[in-house]
Amino acid sequence: MENIPLEIILYGVLPRLPAKSLKCFNCVSKPWLALISSNEFINDHLHYTLASNTNHLLILTGNDTCLYSCNLDFPKGGTVKLPSFGIEPSVVGSCNGLLCIQSYRPYCLVLLNPSTGSYRELPSLLPSRRCSAMNFGFGFDSKNDDYKVVRIVDRYSSLGFLGYHMDRIVHVYSLKKNSWEVIEWTSPECSMGPSRENGALVNNHLLHWKFWCLLESKYRIRCFDLCEKQWINDVPLPDCMEMGFNTYSDQNSNTQDRLLDLWVFDGRLYLSIKNQKQSAVDIWVMNEYGIKDSWVKLFEISDPRVFESTRVSLIAYQSIKRQILLRIVYKAEHKILWYDIESETVEIAVIGGLNDSLWVDVCKGTLLDVPGGSKIGTTKQMA
Predict the structure, then answer these.
(1) Rounded CA gap, 324 and 341, in Å?
(2) What predicted TM-score, i.e. pTM, was given to this entire model?
(3) CA-to-CA distance for 200 and 192, rounded, in angstroms?
(4) What are phi and psi of 76, to 5 degrees?
(5) CA 348/CA 354 separation, integer angstroms
(6) Measured distance CA(311)–CA(307) in Å, rounded
(7) Rounded Cα gap, residues 336 and 282, in angstroms
(8) Fewest CB atoms within 10 Å of the CB: 60, 94, 128, 134?
(9) Residues paired with 179 in a beta bridge
């Protein structure tokens, strides 16, 4: 280290280190504190972090329903308990290292950087009555330099003696304006699932949800552009889905049950699809966004626990051991598994000393503060 020029350390090495380590380096000297706290350094660190396969934080929901964070590169290390803003918190999205967290009693939405302790509570928008489904999305509008939250609610509205019909209401929250806006109020043709399925974020501003079209007996992937505050072109599906899964299932199987998840892996949209004929779950990724022919099957998982699951989600890739962290819903229970790419085997994952987790999400570790936010105290380290 003595032979390495200080300039290389400060501007070449430090921006590539985890956010947690950099926070410790604030105590080295006043010049280091000034450097690490500068907007230029924070943006450089964000650039390197987003472009790399490191600096991932796993956000775990423990059996006590509290949230914990853990470094993916050291999954057997300790976890840090995140601040509690309400009962039963859940992550509804992450972007640039910021988490959007929903809690109940009191009902609230909070933006939090788990690496820095910067947070901001958003104005309450209480759930609608007769709500049948409610999902969120969170991302960044680079056109207006603004973080935004999307809330989609399907609810039943009374028609008097005629019964009920379904309404879909889309709200968008702007952090700059600190207010919610109704973007759409329609009668939907396709339905959202009642389970937790928040928006899959691509390129920081494109949010995606899957909808089931009953009349056509097929799925539709809709895209909401945060910059334009509107729905844009649907994402094309791979041929195996467009053809009604005829290569994946028999005539007696339910087409709707074949698609197990839509999310983002390594910056690309992916689909997990149940392949009945092979007794496996196939993972498809879209290598070039919006290009139908770029869908490719990444791999298939034939482990019985995965195949029999009702939801299979890819969380993160650990490059050191060439393993992929999976979240599954197996026999009504949430399980966290490691999938080894080379041996094609699956084993139970123990993350941060927690033998079991109700849920797991992932975000990048960055130094960004929530705009207009406050700081919270140092969180408690678990043994």
Answers:
(1) 7
(2) 0.90
(3) 14
(4) -95, 0
(5) 12
(6) 9
(7) 18
(8) 128
(9) 174
According to CATH, where is 2.120.10.30 located in the chain?
Answer: 53-372
Residue 270: C-alpha distances to residues 50, 286, 289 (Å):
19, 6, 11
Of the candidates 363, 365, 371, which has an alpha carbon nearest to the alpha carbon of residue 48? 365
d(CA 85, CA 105): 9
Determine the Cα–Cα distance for residues 170 and 230; give it in Å rounded to an integer: 10
- Amino acid (1-letter code) at residue 242: E
152 with 168: CB under 8 angstroms? Answer: yes
CB 166 within 8 A of CB 155: yes
Per-residue pLDDT tens digits of the chain, which is 383 residues long: 456 566 666 666 777 788 877 877 767 777 777 888 888 888 888 888 888 877 889 998 887 788 988 888 776 767 888 988 888 899 999 999 999 999 987 889 999 999 999 999 999 888 777 788 899 999 999 999 999 999 999 988 766 555 577 889 999 999 999 999 999 999 888 888 767 789 999 999 999 999 998 888 889 999 999 999 999 999 999 988 765 555 555 555 566 778 999 999 988 999 999 998 889 999 999 999 999 999 999 999 999 999 999 999 999 888 778 899 999 988 878 888 999 999 999 998 887 766 667 788 999 999 999 999 998 864 433 32
Cα distance between residue 50 and residue 42, in whole Å = 12
Do the Cβ atoms of 154 and 132 come closer than 8 Å?
A: yes
Provide the pairing of β-strand 118-122 with 259-265: unpaired
How many beta carbons lie within 10 A of that of residue 30, not counting itself? Answer: 8
Beta bridge partners of 289: none
Q: How many whole angstroms from its chain centre is CA 199?
A: 8
Which architecture does CATH list for 53-372? Answer: 6 Propeller (2.120)
277 contacts 249 by C-beta, under 8 angstroms:
yes
- The tokens of 289 are what? 């966004």
